[in-house]
Design brief:
There is one protein chain. By secondary structure, the chain is α+β, with helices and mostly antiparallel strands. The chain contains 23 helices and 26 strands. The chain has a domain at about 395-635: Dipeptide-binding Protein, domain 3 (Roll). The radius of gyration is 26 Å and the shape is globular. It starts with 14 loop residues before the first helix and ends with a strand.
């Protein structure tokens, strides 16, 4: 990975960006362009220091004239009646200009997606509309401006000044300014009633971020130590969130601004203002779109909630104040509506084959590929196989509340035995057509992970597994089932969700474990129940984890230390609580976990690619592997990606579709359109 984007100028061009510059620089800029729509495929002399985008004033300077802005006909009646101002008054003065991949599109249509349920498999559809201060480009390396116009670091990367777009407005027409960023940090993130502990991404050097408003367009984040991973967070894993909130909308719900907020919340049927606020604001932007309140909540996203959500669907409509414009002057997005249908996962493939889905990759298993491929012509879609999927991970809950189970799962010999008992080659052939590669769970695309790390304890060795279990005192009975070390019958309850595993995977792996004497009961449960049990430390096995790519490691090291996930913790919730409270609550972690916590604090401050970066990364991989915290199964798995033939401006190099990159976020869904 290239890191020149970290330099204090905030505008340095990395090698990847330079490639994009060369791609979109063909001739001298100026008046007299060959046509009215420069694109990635045909830049027509337009220069940019950022891949496929530039600010409106820069673009107008190059074309030698004022760009005439055009609005989606969807808003024509509202403009005519005065409900909406003309488009020139709705977009920022320095709107973000997109060079579309192929050509400038046309308005209209509804982009149809599938999810399992509210808060279950909905991230991909969120990625069609989401925005944050910065974005990662489709090379999955280069960081580019998005909501923010530009940024500038200080010399030691402990302070960053960001500039917003002049005249940017929320979806209700109210100004979006630095006040909304200050409000987000000081009144939400630092609010102890809402966050008992400041989220770790805003804690560096043992202290929380400080935010300062410079003027309406400019603000500054100050950290107690260097924080080079901030922009990677905002552009990748943090892209599901937003580092701002509409102050004008949320003030009435906070006692600081409205002394009657608590009484009003109780009158509305809530326990108090905190509960009410939690229903209308959430760091996970998708979670705000569940209640009827979402119809009134302002957003900067490309689409906003159009109908009250129910258990069958959600529907979104284009944001009339969206801040992006194409090179012909058309305000984006092109597509009028997004429709998210909730459906049992067993019916996903049938719905796709019937031509009822436009884009789908999240939760699509590789074993669906043959039937999807066969149905391309009938369904009117193309199925691709981008990389980025990895086989399910298995984590034994070492902090489970049941003391007899904890004695087993916290024994390293047991975890090693369970890894050795798995026949990964057979899993690969049976479940994934031999297209995967047996691997342990290690970060992807980082320079400090070796083949030895990837291959650690992946050999199928049931005899070795039996020796380890014997050493633990887990005796094999005449029925082929082992007791626990306490001599009592032992049963492992494996509750899984379809979001993170298939029944076939759980059945095959449990059969491997049964062959070495471990009695396993497999049960499918809902994602919600699994998350509740994981958070309460009552589940035997947890699986809600996405292997971190390098940008995720850089910006969200919490994914590689206990409890490894916020939404569905894997192991070590009481350890995290002990660390966060300086020992006042929770449980003292074992030495290896303590070391991970210590390393993570230093990691946040080091420059990616530096010698110290390599040292810490190497040690963290070693600790996690040698303690067999997360048992990996398969790597390098393609994931089916279904795209209707009716839409265009889809990039040719759609090589990764993964949660840690925001699914479709790098591929600019706001410039897709229906042919």
């Amino acid at each position: 990975m290239l890191y020149s984007e970290f330099l204090p100028s905030g505008r340095a061009i990395s090698g990847a960006t330079l490639g994009a510059v060369l791609l979109i620089t063909i001739s001298d800029p100026g008046v007299g362009l060959a046509s009215s729509c420069p694109s990635v495929a045909d830049p027509q002399g337009i220069n940019s220091s950022q891949p496929y985008q530039l600010d409106l004033p820069d673009y107008e300077k190059q074309i030698g004239k004022k760009l005439a802005l055009k609005s989606n006909p969807l808003f024509a009646d509202q403009v005519k009646t005065g409900k909406l101002p003309p488009v020139a008054m709705r977009v920022p003065e320095d709107a973000l200009i997109y060079l579309p991949y192929k050509d400038c599109g046309k308005y209209g249509g509804m982009l149809r997606g599938l999810a399992k349920a509210l808060e279950s498999g909905t991230s991909e559809i969120l990625s069609w509309r989401q925005v944050n201060l910065v974005r990662i480009s489709d090379d999955l390396q280069t960081l580019v401006p998005n909501v923010a116009k530009s940024w500038k670091w200080n010399d030691d990367l402990s302070s960053i000044t960001m500039t917003l777009r002049k005249g940017h407005k929320w979806s209700d027409g109210e100004p979006f300014t630095a006040d909304d960023v200050v409000f987000y940090i000081n009144d939400i993130i630092m609010n102890k009633d809402l966050h008992k502990v400041v989220p770790s991404v805003w804690m560096v050097g043992g202290k929380p971020v400080e935010v300062t408003k410079i003027d309406a367009q400019n603000f500054r984040f100050d950290f107690a130590a260097p924080y080079p991973g901030l922009l990677h967070f905002l552009a990748t894993g943090g892209s599901y969130f937003a580092a701002y909130a509409p102050k004008h909308h949320y003030m009435p719900y906070l006692p600081k601004y409205n002394p009657k907020a608590d009484a009003e919340a109780k009158a509305a049927g809530h326990e108090g203002w905190v509960q009410r606020f939690g229903l209308i604001w959430h760091k996970w932007k998708d979670a705000e779109n569940i209640t009827a309140h979402a119809l009134t909540r302002p957003t900067l996203e490309s689409h906003l909630v159009e109908l009250v959500t129910n258990t069958q669907r959600r529907q979104f409509i284009a944001n009339p104040y969206y801040f992006k414009v194409d090179t012909a002057g058309n305000q984006l997005p092109y597509i009028d509506r997004h429709h998210e249908r909730f459906l049992d996962q067993e019916l996903f493939v049938l719905s796709i084959l019937n031509g009822e889905v436009d884009v789908k990759t999240q939760t699509m298993a590789l074993n669906n590929f043959p039937v999807l491929k066969e149905g391309e012509a009938k369904g009117g879609y193309t199925v691709k196989r981008p990389s980025g999927a990895y086989g399910p991970y298995i984590v034994f809950n070492q902090t489970i509340k049941d003391p007899s189970l904890r004695a087993v799962y916290s024994d390293l010999r047991f975890r090693k035995a369970m890894s050795l008992a798995i026949n990964r080659n057979e899993l690969n052939e049976v479940l994934w057509f031999g297209l995967g590669k047996p691997e342990q769970a290690v970060p992807i695309g980082v320079p400090f992970v070796t083949d030895a790390n990837r291959n650690y304890l992946i050999a199928h060795d049931p005899a070795g597994a039996k020796v380890l279990l014997d050493d633990m005192g887990m005796k094999m009975g005449s029925d082929g089932k082992r007791t626990g070390p306490d001599g009592k019958p032992f049963t492992l309850l494996w509750e899984f969700t379809a979001q993170h595993s298939s029944a076939e995977f759980a059945t095959l792996v449990s059969d491997y474990w049964k062959k070495v004497g471990i009695n396993v009961t497999v049960k499918e449960v809902t994602t919600q129940l699994m998350r509740e049990k994981a958070s309460n430390s009552t589940s035997d096995i947890n699986m809600e984890w996405d292997v971190p790519y390098e940008p995720t490691m850089i910006s969200q090291i919490d994914v590689y230390i206990p409890p490894y996930s916020d939404i569905g913790p894997l192991v070590g919730v009481p350890w995290r609580d002990w660390v966060a409270s300086n020992g006042a609550s929770g449980e003292e972690p074992p030495a290896w976990a303590k070391r991970l916590f210590e390393l993570s604090e230093v990691w946040k401050t080091v420059l990616p690619g530096s010698k110290r970066y390599m040292e810490i990364g190497t040690e963290m991989v070693k600790i996690n592997l040698e303690n067999m915290v997360i048992i990996g199964t398969m790597g390098s798995l393609p994931r089916p990606l279904v795209v209707t033939n009716k839409i265009t401006n889809i990039p040719e190099g759609w090589n990764v579709s993964h949660f840690n990159y925001g699914y479709d976020y790098p591929y600019r869904a706001d410039q897709w359109y229906f042919k």
